[in-house]
Amino acid sequence: MGYFSTLNIAILLIDLAMAWHVIRSGRSPLWIMGMGLVSFFSPLALVALWLAYLVTAVIPDFLKSHGMRRFTGSVAQAADPGRGYREKKRQVELVGSVDAKRALAEESVKRGLYSEAIELYESAMQGPLGGSDPTLLKGLGRARMLAGQGPEAEALFVQLKQVDPAAFDADAELDYARALALQGKNDEAVAQYEKVVARYPGEEARARFGLLLESIGQQARAQALFSEILQSVKGAPSYYRSRQREWAAIAKSHLR
């Protein structure tokens, strides 16, 4: 069959893949030397070396990889949805640090426990620098906005912008627009939405802006935004369509 048989090509490709992994992971070059030596003896010895490397190097690296950690974390979360919340609450009880309170507050927001999140953020801000911590200001502003406390949320976002303009990012700008809309400050909310829509990643800002415009009678502008959303997701990659499914559904249901 010759040197370039299918078997020899397969062996070469596996050898190259193993050598690449050895170099990339910083392991001893003796693995490569051993692979070269056993190749001259028997295929069984070479297969045994491959299996040894797979068990002692490739599989452990895979189990430690970021993707695998995310996967196992997702599985654990699906099996026990309250696990993350309980662990963070225990950290607050044991340590009570600013970081522990912030982490639990963020988890509380995800679970819709806005009053609890507000208490945690305010407790974390009791320190000498808490009132000027951009992360805490932004988190408390969001929690108050989601709790329907428009004026308090607005004041916090204004403070955030003064303390650290860089921290007043697209997410904070969107929450600020929503806080204005909660108070019926429609002109200010429209102006703020116009700023954030151009820079917000994804379709949420456009969808929320469209809903606001629709509620104040600006139907033509709202319809244009809903149409833009559907056009944007139509030719987008599958992962983008999946992430924007909620906002695309809103646009579709409101498009006339």
Could you describe the 3D structure shown?
By secondary structure, the chain is an all-alpha fold. Helices cover 77% and strands 0% of the residues. It is elongated and about 80 Å long. The model has no long low-confidence stretch (mean pLDDT 87).
Low-confidence stretches: none
> How widely separated are the two ends?
68 Å
How many alpha or pi helices? 15
Q: Please summarize the sheet with the most strands.
A: none
Q: Quick check: average pLDDT?
A: 87
**Order of H and E elements:** HHHHHHHHHHHHHHH
Anisotropy-based shape: elongated
Strand count: 0
Strand content: under 5%
Rg value: 27 Å
Overall helicity: over 70%
By helix and strand content, what is the structural category?
Answer: mainly alpha
How would the blueprint of this fold be written?
Layout: H1 6-25, H2 30-38, H3 43-64, H4 66-79, H5 83-94, H6 98-110, H7 114-124, H8 134-146, H9 150-163, H10 170-182, H11 186-197, H12 204-215, H13 219-234, H14 238-243, H15 245-254
